[in-house]
Please model this.
Amino acid sequence: MKNIKEIADKAGIKEEELELYGNTKAKVKLDVINRLKDEKNGKYILVTAITPTPLGEGKTTTLLGLTQAFGTVHNKNVIACIRQPSMAPTFNIKGGGAGGGKSLAVPVDEINLGLTGDIHAIGAAHNLAMAALDTRMWHETRQSDEALKSRGIDRRLDVDPESIIWNRVVDVCDRSLRGISIGLDDNTVKDGSPNPVFPRKTNYDLTVASELMAILALATDLKDLRERIGKAVIALDKSGNPVTLEDLRVAGAVAAILIDAIKPTLVQTSEGQPTLVHTGPFANIAHGNSSIVADKIALKLADYVITEAGFAADMGMEKFFNIKCRYSGLSPDAVVMVATVRALKLHGGGPAVRPGKLDEVYTSENLELLEKGLDNLGAHIRNAKKYGVEVVVAVNQFPEDTEAEIEMIRKYSMENGALDAVGATHFSDGGAGAGDLAAAVIKAAETKSDFNFLYDLDDSIEQKINTIATKMYGADGVDFSNKAKEQIEKYTKLGFDKIPICMAKTPLSLSHDPSLKGVPSGFRVPIKEIRASVGAGFLYPLTGDVSTMPGLATRPSFMDIDINTETGEVVGVEH
Model:
C-alpha cells in the first residue's frame, strides 16, 4: 500500500483536507466540496447486477477491478465510491465486502472490521435516541406536569407504546435479539399501579438498517444531516401525531455523535486508485447505496466516478435512481450490469447454490442451461433502460467459464438492449483483466443519456408501490394487508405520502419469493406493513418475510478470523 497522503495527492485532495487515521486511511473533510464547487462534475457510473446467487455476483470486486483498469490500463483520473461493509455478513456466511482476488480495496481487514468507526457511531447515536425515548416515557408515567416542568420538560409527549417505530440496533447477526422484553424492573408506577409502558416487547435490528444510516447516506452536507435527524419520527403520540428526535430534544446529541461520521474515508485499491468508503445501508432492508457526500466529492475531483448499488438492479439500482438521485440532484451516465455464468445457470433451472462445493453443472460448459437463464439478465437490462441510461454487461468470469458461454451472454445482451457485453478476469488479473470492459464503459459514459424517474412523487403511496412492483419486478399487482392500508391512510394524513418508496424484499428473486428464479410471472406482491423513515425521506414497505435481524449460520465466517501474534495482522477476513 502507498501512504494515504500520496493517494490523496493523486486524487487532488489537499493535506489540510485530511484527518489521518495512521498511514493507510484518512477522513476527508467536507471543505473540499466548497473549494471545488465551480469545477465540472466527472462522469458518473453505476455498477449493479442481475439477481444473485446467495454467494453474490462480485459487484464490488468488479467495481474495483474496473476502477483499476480505468487507472492503469486507460490512464484515466478515476475514483471508486463503495459502501462500508457491515460486520454482520463479514462474521456470517457472505464474508467481507472489500472486493476479492486482485481487485481489492485495502487495507481489507480494517475496511471489513469497523474502519474509522462510522457504523459504531451510528449504533451509539441510534441507541441513545431509543434510551431517550424510553426514559421520557418512564418519567412521564411517574411525575406530574409540574414536576416535569421543574426539570425543564415543558410538555408531555404522551407516546403511544404500540406506535414505536425504531428498535435498538447492533452490528452483528443475533437471532436471539429478534424478540426481547425490556423494562422488566419498571413494571409499576409510584403508587404501585401497573406501568402502562413497561415491561414491553421489542427487538433489535442491524445497525445498517437504522434510519440514521440512511440519513447519513442521503444527507448532502452537515446542515442537511442535522435537519434530517431532527425530522426523524421515532414514534407517535396517543393522538396519532409524530414524535420526532427534535421533540425528544436528543437530535443535537445524535448529530454530535455523527459529526465525524459524515466525512468519507479515503483508502485505495490494490493497484493504488483512490477509493472513498462511506455508509453501508443494505439494499434489501434499506436503500443500498454509499453516500451522496462521497459521490459529490469524488465527482469534483475525478473525470470518472464508479459507485455501486446493493444486490440486483430491481433493488439497489431502482433505489439509487428513485431515492438517491432525487436527493443528490445527480444522474448517472452509464450502468454496468454484472452477471456470472453461474447465476444465469441457476436461473435456468440449475440446482441450489450454497457455500461449499458447487454442482458440476456450474463448473462445466452447459449452454442449454445457460440459455434458459438468460431471461433474468434481459429483464434487468430492460429495467435499467427504462431510466434512459446506457447499459454495459460485465461478465465476471470464473476459470471454468468457456468462450462459448461468454459469447452466448454477449450476443444475448446486445440483442436485448445492452450497448456492449464484455468478459472480465479482474479477480485473477486485476485491472489488466478488465481493460476491455473499461473501454466499453468509457464509450457508454460518453453516450448522451436521457435520465428519468420511474414514478412521480405526487403519485399516491399505493400508486408508487404498484409502479415498482409491476414495472421493476414484473408483478401482476400488489396486495396490501389491513395493517398496511391503515398505515397508508395514517401516513397520507400526516403528509408523508410525497416522498420516495424504499421496498424491502428478498434479493434472491425478481419477485418477493426467493424460490422463484429467472423471470417470474403471474404473481402479486404482498405488502404486510409499511414503515416510515421520515428523516431519511422515504417509506419502506415490507414484502413477505424480510428479516431486519438475520441469524448466524451453523458455521459462520468468524470461525476463520484470528490474529497473527507475531506480525500483529488480522487473518481470515474473507477476500
In short: Residues 28 and 441 are 28 Å apart (CA to CA). The domain at 118-257 is CATH 3.30.1510.10 (Domain 2, N(10)-formyltetrahydrofolate synthetase).
